[in-house]
Every structure is written in structure tokens, then in C-alpha cells.
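REQUEST ID: PR-0412
SUBMITTED BY: lab tech R.K.
PRIORITY: routine
TASK: structure prediction, single protein chain
INPUT:
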Amino acid sequence: MLDTNQMMDLDAAERDIKNKQMILSTAVDVQALLRILVDKKIITKEEMNQYREEVRKSPRYEAATSYVDQTLKEIELYKKDSQLYMQEMFKRKMQGRRR
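STATUS: complete
OUTPUT:
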């Protein structure tokens, strides 16, 4: 299951997979709780969607949500335009930046 890059740095690969494991476990727990709430008619799916949007826009989660959305847009842009990607990589290398 490990790819070559992961084989080169087993510690980083282990951290990455443990993070993914934690995210997956949390997602499963949340989904189970949501099903219980809906099945017991404590909340409707529509209400859940409304609350979800409110939480995403709350000060606690807004910055993280925005960062993820912007980063995914940037990735898609660079995937579509390889020349722009190479220019940005060259620019960053010349500036000695990693980010």
C-alpha cells in the first residue's frame, strides 16, 4: 500500500496515515450521531444542513474552511495550467520559499 515517496520517509507516512485514520474515525462517529438524531426525529436533514452552514461560517471554523477551499482552488488551477505551475515553482525556488 505504500508508494515510493512514503517508503522514503516512513515517519512522515505514519503521521499522515494516523491523521487520516483520526479523520475517518471522526467522520464515522459524526455520521452515526447524525443518523441517530434523524432516525429518532430529534432533528431533520434540512435542519442539519442549516446548522452545518452556520457552523462553517462561524469565527471558529471560517478561517480553516476558507484556507481549505482556497488551497483546493489553487491546486485545480495549477493542474489545469502547467505553465503557470512551473512559473510559480521557479519563482518560489528563486526566492528560496518553500510555501
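NOTES: The chain has two domains: 9-56, 61-99.
REVIEWED BY: pending
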